[in-house]
Task: structure prediction
Amino acid sequence: MKKIYFTFLIVTMAKLMAQPVISADHAIQPGTTTYQHADPTTLGSLAPGPSGANVSWDFSQYSSAATISQTMYNCPGNANCSDFPGANKMTGAGSGSSYTYDYMLYSNNELSTIGNKSTNPSGATLYTFDDPKLELKFPVTYLQSFTDSWTAHSTPAGTSETGNHTVTVDAYGTLKTPLGTFPNTLRMKRVMNISTNVTGSPFTSSVIEMYTWISSGYSGALLTIAFADTTVTGYPTVHNRSLSYGNNNLVLSADDIKVDRKINIYPNPSSDFITIKNNELIDKVELSNAEGRKIYESDTADKVDISGFPLGVYYLKMSFKDGKTQIRKVIKK
Result:
């Protein structure tokens, strides 16, 4: 009996140790990723496949109808970073005068969206997340789960959004796409509920179920599929499906994600002062509000007085003597 139990224990431990793990080093490296997008009219029978451990998925039958590339940048480091100074990561995609930028904050092993910008020949529209949208928590592991909610508004004014989502890493196994077979792949399931108000237009609500496959050896997603049901007041619900896939080999640089320095910020949330511990390497601190406007700057890096600011979310940017920067989210309560 002991031998049977011991054998079972060894097999169980081997399975646990074989589970893939995705770190921030693998997920948010700067660089360009390219994705193939399937023709939506070919996705009538699309299904996400099984959840669970050591499963297999085959999406190799879906051919490409369009190719789209996006580039991730470190901020600061690109002229567009100035639109949301609280961001330390930014992605951009588009061509000509039509581009879309997403602005993110990586801090405390979490990646959150704080804003985006869309440009076209008529100008630019900024979208500010008053309550940032949590995208990823690192390390990403099998059975990890979290929920989050957010609010956002546009500049120029006219659009507001509220939303929530539940993210669950519900499976791992071997993925097959038109670009190859990928073992040790994690699948993230994301269910989003979004309500949008546009001045002068009917109310819109959307339910989006999205599945993303990621692997430690590749940058970005290996495969993403989504099922969206959108309802506009007074009109029938519209059902959409999408599928995209990539094969972007990860190349780690010598400067891999070193933003987690041994800096302590407390209390957070706070009603009056934020104390910065181990601040001897900091050259300057700056505080920006949720819209990215700098409201405080000091060469003194031990305490920040936030007592005079309204309640809400702020971004503390610390500039180090070696030229690097780190951004932390702070909350005034």
About this structure: The helical segments are 2-18, 24-27. The longest strand covers residues 159-177.
